[in-house]
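sry for the spam today, last one i promise. struct tokens for design, 197 residues
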């Protein structure tokens, strides 16, 4: 499998530089000790996050309805992924959005290692993407190829999905659609305004 990437935002790395320097100075802001021992940081190429809405999923719509979100860069120290840095686009310019110290970076690498071994993806050229379905708290690595859409859910995932398993898009979305319909019914029935209905 050959990974491809979209055209990165101009000045993206330079925009992240102050946040990464701050993380090194503060040793990970006290929450990511990997920064304390980091000598030199390196970044992956930029890849894009996408979001699929509860409404679209509940109505049986597919990945073509996913909207583009933040740019992501994996942060490495000593060859190990230690964080996910995010840039957001505002009025045509990129701005620093977040430095995610959670499991996203390591889970992304684990999912890509799994994909490398998958016979289904041998010889394919795939664009690395992230898919978020916020209403169901689903995050998946999305490998977008000309003739395949492969998704690898990463933790945490709903109980009916296996984390770190390859799914074709149709299978994964068919498993999630009933959950989306249930959640949408709850939102639609809410009259208190506390659930967004």
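last one done:
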């Amino acid at each position: 499998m050959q990974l491809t990437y979209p055209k990165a935002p101009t000045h993206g790395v330079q925009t992240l530089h102050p946040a990464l320097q701050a993380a090194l100075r503060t040793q990970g802001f006290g929450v990511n000790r990997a920064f304390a021992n980091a000598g030199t940081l390196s970044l992956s190429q930029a890849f894009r996050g996408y979001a699929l809405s509860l409404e679209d999923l509940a109505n049986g719509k597919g990945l073509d309805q996913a909207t583009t979100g933040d740019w992501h860069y994996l942060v490495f120290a000593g060859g190990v992924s230690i964080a996910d840095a995010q840039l957001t686009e505002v009025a045509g310019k990129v701005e620093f959005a977040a430095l995610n110290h959670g499991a996203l970076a390591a889970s992304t690498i684990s999912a890509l290692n799994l994909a490398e071994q998958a016979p289904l993806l041998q010889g394919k050229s795939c664009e690395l993407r992230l898919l978020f379905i916020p209403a169901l708290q689903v995050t998946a690595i999305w490998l977008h190829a000309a003739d395949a859409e492969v998704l690898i859910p990463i933790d945490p995932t709903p109980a009916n999905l296996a984390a770190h398993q390859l799914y074709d898009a149709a299978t994964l979305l068919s498993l999630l659609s009933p959950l989306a319909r249930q959640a949408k019914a709850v939102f639609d029935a809410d009259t208190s305004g506390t659930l967004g209905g």
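The chain has one domain: 2-189. ok im logging off now
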